[in-house]
């Protein structure tokens, strides 16, 4: 039987992913986007979404792959796409709310609409929900210290050594 992975190895996989994403941002910013703020924002919002989709479809990120761990279902067999996508949405959904809120807020700033304050207020509410959701997911990650080694966002999945 494969062994479930707890806090330490999962945190290390996250740190590897974070370093890779930061390196990708740095390369893109210094080579392609310097001076092109629109392109920088598009890539800045798209890269984490691509990362989320990749994890949701494959059950791995580069950090997990390098450490030899994979998202599977609770029984330790291959998780279905539905389980992986649900887990990814639970884990990263806050980012989508923050992104939509930010885009609404920046595109309506100084807009000549009849009710710009309603759009700004709506975007602020989306961002507030996103921040709260992100905090809950962050706190829920510490549940991996339990015997089940499942974080709040794991839903019907768990992380196992390959």
Q: How many E-type strands?
A: 2
SSE series: HHHEHHE
Strand content: 5-15%
Strand order of the largest sheet: 1-2
Could you give the distance between the termini? 10 Å
Could you list the spans in which at least 5 consecutive residues all have pLDDT below 50? none
Please tell me the total number of domains: 1
- Strand count, sense and closure of the main sheet? 2 strands, antiparallel
Silhouette: globular
Number of helices, counting only DSSP H or I runs of 4 residues or more? 5
Radius of gyration based on Cα positions: 18 Å
Helix-and-strand structural type: mainly alpha
Q: How confident overall, as mean pLDDT?
A: 85
Q: What is the helical fraction, as a range of percent?
A: 55-70%
Write structural notes for this entry:
This protein has 162 residues and is mostly helical. The protein has one domain. α1 packs antiparallel against α2 and α2 runs antiparallel to α4. The radius of gyration is 18 Å and the shape is globular. The mean pLDDT is 85.
Summarize the SSE layout with pairings.
Layout (H helix, E strand, L loop, with lengths): L6 H27 L3 H22 L3 H6 L1 E5 L7 H28 L7 H25 L16 E5 L1
Antiparallel strand pairs: 1-2
Helix pairs in contact: 1-2, 2-4, 4-5
């Amino acid at each position: 039987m494969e062994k479930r992975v707890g806090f330490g190895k999962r945190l290390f996989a996250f740190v590897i992913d974070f370093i890779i994403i930061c390196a990708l941002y740095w390369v893109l910013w210094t080579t392609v986007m310097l001076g092109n703020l629109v392109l920088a924002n598009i890539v800045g919002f798209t890269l984490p979404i691509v990362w989320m989709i990749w994890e949701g479809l494959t059950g791995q990120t580069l950090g997990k792959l390098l450490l030899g761990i994979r998202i599977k279902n609770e029984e330790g067999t291959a998780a279905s796409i539905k389980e992986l996508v649900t887990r990814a949405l639970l884990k990263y959904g806050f980012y989508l709310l923050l992104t939509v809120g930010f885009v609404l807020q920046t595109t309506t700033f100084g807009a000549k609409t009849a009710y710009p304050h309603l759009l700004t207020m709506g975007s602020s509410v989306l961002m507030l929900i996103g921040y709260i959701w992100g905090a809950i997911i962050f706190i829920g990650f510490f549940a991996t210290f339990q015997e089940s080694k499942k974080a709040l966002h794991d839903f019907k999945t768990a992380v196992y050594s390959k």
